[in-house]
Amino acid sequence: MSIDLAIDGAVAIVTINRPERRNAMDAEHYAGLSRAWIEVRDNPAIRTAIVTGAGDKAFSAGADLKSFTADAPPLADTLLTQQGQLLNRGLEVWKPVIAAVNGACLGGGTTLLLATDIRIAVRHATFSVSEVKRGLFPGNGGTQRLIQQLPHAIAMELLLTGDGIDAATAERWGLVNRVVEPDELMPTALAYARRIAENAPLAVQAAKELALRSRDVDLATGLRLEQLMLRLLQTSADAREGSDAFGEKRPPRFTGA
Ligand code: COA
């Protein structure tokens, strides 16, 4: 049982590795995930990340129900807002993150999914935020991102019934990008990750940040942020390399500078 982080070229692969508990996450696994996301954010060699679960049964069955309610943290911890930040809670990771959903994606697994950018799922994957069935609700962004990312009636159906949907429905509703056979899962996720990693890293990260921040700012402010960010990028070596490579009819060699 662990959170594994492997680096394959410019791609980090984060694996929730606790298949005997269907990759349910207890405090130790959440801490491991927090460290993994910080490594993804801060290691300049990493340009994109994939998150997946070990085994073929579950991406993650969410919070460890056997320790979560028994070990509720001290009330004072709720004020330590910079502690134990996660991709779906507090951390700003502008490098693209791709979810490779290898099986059941439940509760905290789905709230993690909602913080990723591109999502590939196997045909037998299922999705739910079942917390209301257990006396809780989907925290770590679940109540916030579900309604942002899905149409109102669909988000509310998932949130309030806690019922699950299959991969075909998730694809139809736009919760995932593609549904593939199990042996195509990692190759498809890696192909997306490598394709994005070939693009100019600063441009990719700026594009992600601007797109996500657009939810929090009015259009005029968003347009100004976009204009300023673009002006900054125009001074980057990679912007010059992009146009030089085009002119010289060769693939660009981006360095992230
Ligand atoms: N927390 C703690 N343990 C969990 C868990 C969770 N969220 N999900 C699964 N497990 C454990 C099971 O208790 C079981 O342990 P055991 O072998 O000691 O009995 C083991 O993982 C395997 O689970 P099992 O239910 O036998 O596997 P399955 O493949 O038949 O079903 C799930 C997988 C994920 C569909 C099912 O385990 C499930 O519904 N889990 C609860 C998920 C949930 O409600 N999450 C929301 C959290 S709020």
- Strand count: 10
Radius of gyration: 19 Å
- List all distinct small molecules, including ions and cofactors, that are bound in this structure: coenzyme A
Kindly name the structural category: alpha/beta
Low-confidence stretches: none
Task: Estimate nothing, just give the exact number of structural domains.
Answer: 2
What is the subunit organization of this protein?
single chain
The description of the largest β-sheet is: 6 strands, mixed
| Percent of residues in β-strands | 15-25%
In the CATH hierarchy, what is the superfamily of the largest domain?
A: 2-enoyl-CoA Hydratase, Chain A, domain 1
CATH topology of the largest domain: 2-enoyl-CoA Hydratase, Chain A, domain 1
How confident is the prediction overall: mean pLDDT?
96
Task: Using the 3D structure, state the CATH architecture of the largest domain.
Answer: Alpha-Beta Complex
Largest beta sheet: what is the strand line-up? 1-2-3-5-7-10
- What best-fitting shape do the alpha-carbon axes yield? globular
| SSE pattern | EEHEEHEEHEEHHEHEHHHH
Report the span from N to C terminus.
38 Å
